[in-house]
UniProtKB/TrEMBL annotation:
<dbReference type="GO" id="GO:0032259">
    <property type="term" value="P:methylation"/>
</dbReference>
<feature type="domain" description="Methyltransferase">
    <location>
        <begin position="60"/>
        <end position="153"/>
    </location>
</feature>
<dbReference type="Pfam" id="PF13649">
    <property type="entry name" value="Methyltransf_25"/>
</dbReference>
<dbReference type="InterPro" id="IPR041698">
    <property type="entry name" value="Methyltransf_25"/>
</dbReference>
<keyword id="KW-0808">Transferase</keyword>
<protein>
    <submittedName>
        <fullName>Methyltransferase domain-containing protein</fullName>
    </submittedName>
</protein>
<dbReference type="InterPro" id="IPR029063">
    <property type="entry name" value="SAM-dependent_MTases_sf"/>
</dbReference>
<keyword id="KW-0489">Methyltransferase</keyword>
<dbReference type="GO" id="GO:0008168">
    <property type="term" value="F:methyltransferase activity"/>
</dbReference>
């Protein structure tokens, strides 16, 4: 799963016993050589689904990590692209890889209420980050993203279709979540990363409560499962325009 340039087992263990912020600071120099980086196929499928809705003006990558989302935002946005993350280590890697973009260190649960995070962006995206937020924290995240978007702006993110109940992947992901819950019950600081807390129904309720109108489209470029379901969907949460 890891290339020779990726982290060692010991480095992963140290990261897993750290806080989310400190863990990603430690992992940052080798993050792009791990399977945790958002796959290019998922980024490209997202860009393909968004392309008919654009072009867009300013773009925002929420929880940007090392900047993989620039693969989507760069071609779609005609103006400045900004990434925001609370890990200084991940932002350092993003700046090196994409010096033309703007990188801001901030907690996505408490985005600044002034400056560039108030009605400034036309498109916001996030990739692979929702599992780092407890359900009780997502309302603040979604409220901040809505505030950062201009009226009519779009918040988009992909969701992988959950595996069938009882399948090997179902038990693997459920087992991972269980291990994380046990880890966080007995060890401090907590490391929040859960696969089973970002279900579409709950996200729809939370995004609607935050003032978005939400639809989804299948990510057909990812293919379909044996049961015919698309392997992923793109959530499209629109901030209503001014009346």
């Amino acid at each position: 799963m890891f290339s020779p340039q990726g982290p060692s087992l010991r480095e992963l263990a140290v990261q897993a016993l750290s806080s989310v912020e400190r863990g990603y600071d430690l992992l940052a120099p080798k993050f792009d050589h791990t399977p945790f980086r958002t796959p290019a196929a998922l980024l490209d499928a997202t860009a393909e689904a968004l392309r008919p809705l654009g072009p867009f003006g300013r773009g925002l990558d929420v929880c940007c990590g090392t900047g993989a989302g620039l693969r989507v935002l760069g071609p779609l946005c005609r103006e400045q692209v900004t990434g925001v993350d609370f890990s200084a280590g991940m932002l350092e890697q993003a700046r090196r890889a994409h010096p033309h973009a703007e990188w801001v260190r901030a907690d996505a649960r408490a985005l600044p209420v002034a400056g560039p995070f108030t009605e400034s962006f036309d498109l916001a995206v996030t990739f692979g980050a929702l599992g780092h937020f407890l359900p009780a924290e997502r309302p603040a995240l979604f409220a901040g993203v809505r505030r950062a978007l201009r009226p009519g702006g779009l918040f988009a993110f992909p969701l992988i279709t959950p595996p069938p109940v009882g399948s090997a992947w179902y038990w693997a992901l459920s087992g991972f979540d269980l291990v994380m819950r046990v880890r966080n019950a007995v060890w401090r600081p907590p490391f929040v990363m859960y696969y089973g807390t970002s279900r579409l129904g709950a996200l729809r309720e939370e995004l609607t409560a935050a003032g978005f109108t939400m639809t989804t489209v299948p990510l057909t470029a990812l293919g379909r499962r044996a049961d015919g379901l698309a392997r992923g969907r793109l959530v499209l949460a629109r901030r209503p325009g001014r009346s």
